[in-house]
Design a protein that fits this description.
single chain, about 450 residues, alpha/beta, ten-stranded mixed beta sheet, six-stranded mixed beta sheet, 18 strands, about 20% strand, elongated
Length: about 450
């Protein structure tokens, strides 16, 4: 520990009227002593930070204001955290972390609170982490766990830059998910298609090679007129693949709703015909998450054929509508605090590859055929599921290739452009996407780009 770093931290805290206890190398002794020196009768909040860290002017007032607000909440938070940046050796600030609101799944891989938060804790909580080098992090994790067990309020996020850090806790890349495939329920995969047998064949061959105990497939043919495609559909094994006919103007929502009504699987997988599988475990990985009581729609990490990211969750409000997060980033890149590589709750996921429980799909009325025939139907579905407490979930360990819009093309004609304009207007009208900030994004991040970047 450099003395000047410690002095700078203590001075920063003192300027805000915050009392300080310095914990040295003897963690057990110091924490036990500290616990005896704190007046627990006033129900204090603790701010564990590292030597070298500083807090911004007004930090104490910001936290106290939120503490006062918490007194009027029936289920108050046990943690209040803020945004932070890093201090360069010469004192310059860099690498601002404009954080998401509480995201328990993301926190499991990336502790973005410790060192930039205050914690409601008691004497027993402090002494319980004594003797641990990472006692500050353990105190925060313990507070999170205690809050979840007692069904207390989730950690509260102050969208303010209050902490200037000497160092941060880096994200931990998730290991392979634990999948008990024998206990996973039947899945019905729904694949809309029109011509382009080359794409459909690749997609269905990938489904056939998928390692999953019980799959059936419904291919919905929207007026294919190519002879090779029709012959391929006719030759499909009816024991595993059912072919439905849907005639008329392409309506993605209506096509999937019709197939879902005939599905037998407990889980529904909406799958574009231009999806190509990379490995056999994608569906089991997604199904494991979809069976959780707090999860609604599960989305995969989708890559363009050149390996760049096409989908890593959906952010509401980007472009004043909704857009794919981290698009065009490479999976191995650092990106924005590795967010593209970490499992997390999101506001929405794409229906190019979306998995959810069939009864939850039915509970919210399926896809909206009238307002969102082609665009934004997945966003609307996810937001309605979220309202029921079934949060959307991005699972990067399920990775597939998406030949985006190859089979249907882009809406560049006058009719397609007019339809898209109507769907965009409906999204803004129903969900206020031109005004709200995605809770897993941030007001200080630009709404003009799909990659997370500071707004100028």
């Amino acid at each position: 520990m450099v003395q000047r770093d410690l002095d700078a931290t203590v001075h920063s805290l003192a300027a805000e009227g915050i009392g300080t206890w310095v914990i040295g190398a003897k963690h057990t002794e110091d924490l036990v002593v500290a616990a005896t020196m704190i007046d627990w009768q006033v129900n204090p909040w603790l701010m564990p930070i590292n030597a070298g860290d500083r807090i911004a002017p007004g930090t104490a007032a910001a936290y106290r204001l939120e503490i006062a607000a918490q007194r009027g909440v029936s289920v108050p938070s046990g943690i209040i955290y803020a945004d932070d940046d890093q201090l360069h050796r010469r004192g310059q600030r860099r690498n601002p972390h404009f954080k998401p609101d509480w995201n328990s799944e993301l926190f499991a891989c990336h502790d973005y609170m410790t060192g930039a938060c205050i914690v409601r804790a008691g004497r027993e909580d402090l002494t319980a982490v004594s003797g641990k080098a990472d006692w500050a992090q353990q105190l925060v994790v313990q507070a999170v766990r205690s809050g979840q067990e007692a069904e207390d309020g989730a950690p509260t996020h102050l969208r303010q830059m209050l902490h200037h850090r000497a160092k941060r806790i880096a994200p931990n890349m998730p290991g392979a998910p634990i999948v008990a495939s024998r206990n996973l329920p039947p899945v019905t995969i729904i694949v809309p298609t029109r011509n382009r047998v080359d794409l459909l064949r690749t997609c269905l061959n990938g489904v056939a090679a998928t390692d999953y105990p019980d799959i059936d497939v419904i291919v919905v043919d929207n007026d294919s007129d190519d002879a090779e495609t029709l012959a391929y559909l006719e030759a499909l094994d009816s024991a595993h693949v059912q072919v439905l006919r849907y005639s008329g103007v392409f309506n993605f929502s209506a096509i999937n709703n019709r197939a879902a009504a005939q599905a037998r699987g407990q889980l529904l997988c909406l799958l574009n015909n231009d999806i190509e599988m990379i490995g056999p475990d994608w569906l089991a990985v997604m199904a494991t998450q979809a069976m959780r009581k707090d999860v609604g729609a599960v989305g995969a990490q989708l890559l363009y054929p050149d390996g760049r990211i096409q989908h890593a969750g959906v952010v509401i409000g980007v472009g004043n509508a909704a857009a794919h997060a981290h698009r065009l980033l490479r999976p191995e890149d650092e990106g924005y605090f590795r967010r593209h590589a970490l499992p997390q709750f999101t506001s929405a996921v794409t229906a190019a590859c979306l998995l959810l429980q069939r009864e939850r799909f039915e509970a919210v009325g399926g896809l909206d055929e009238r307002n969102f025939a082609v665009a934004f139907n997945d966003v609307d579905l996810c937001l309605r599921l979220n309202q029921r407490g079934w949060q959307s979930f991005y699972e990067p360990r399920a990775m597939l290739i998406h030949h985006e819009s190859v089979s249907r093309g882009l809406d560049q004609d006058a009719v397609g452009a007019a339809r898209f304009a109507g769907e965009l207007a409906a999204l803004k009208r129903i969900w206020r996407t031109d005004h709200i900030t995605d809770p897993f994004h941030h007001p200080q991040l630009t709404r003009a780009a799909e990659r997370f970047a500071v707004a100028l």
